[in-house]
Amino acid sequence: MAIFTNYIKQDEPPKKFELTQNDPNPFRKRTVFRYSLPYKTKVVIMINNEEGQIIDKLILPNQEQGVYELEFYADGLPKGIYFYHLIADDYVKSREMELIK
After folding, report:
1. CB atoms within 10 A of CB 70
2. 44-90 tens-digit pLDDT
3. Which of 8, 72, 78, 96 could pair with 67 in a Cys bridge, judged by C-beta atoms 3.0 to 4.6 Å apart?
4. Residue 99's CB: how many other CB atoms inside 10 A?
5. Residues 6+ apart with CB under 8 A from 44
6. Average pLDDT score over residue span 15-36
7. Is there a contact between 53 and 85 (Cβ–Cβ < 8 Å)?
8. CATH number of the domain enclosing 26
9. What is the end-to-end Cα distance of the chain in Å, rounded?
10. CA distances (Å), 27 to each of 4, 18, 33, 46, 95, in order?
11. How confident is the model at residue 1 (pLDDT cuts 50, 70, 90)?
């Protein structure tokens, strides 16, 4: 398993927090989603399985304002439903994704 983030250049900075649905969904090995930060803040991204166990966790202590693309690689994980969470300042958002083999 691995999580990678990349900054996405935008013409205008985001005005609110946002977490998009992963694409593709369902996915086989790799999926991507985007999140937006309206100001510099600490960011925590967690991936959980259906039982609530933490599969992966990424902590970014001072991420700049902007839009980011996150790539998640599910190597070694069994098929099933997983949840990903964005925690930034007082914002918490979760979404569901499905891994198929």
Report:
1. 20
2. 999 999 999 999 999 999 999 999 999 999 999 999 999 999 999 99
3. 8
4. 19
5. 57, 58, 59, 60, 85, 86, 87, 88
6. 97
7. no
8. 2.60.40.1930
9. 15
10. 17, 21, 12, 18, 14
11. low
Task: Give the structural domain span for 58.
Answer: 2-99
**Structure tokens given for 4:** 């990678």
| Joined tokens for residue 11 | 């013409």
Write 92-98 long-range contacts (CB < 8 A, 24+): 93/17, 93/18, 93/19, 95/19, 95/21, 95/22, 95/33, 97/22, 97/25, 97/26, 97/27, 97/31, 98/25, 98/26, 98/27
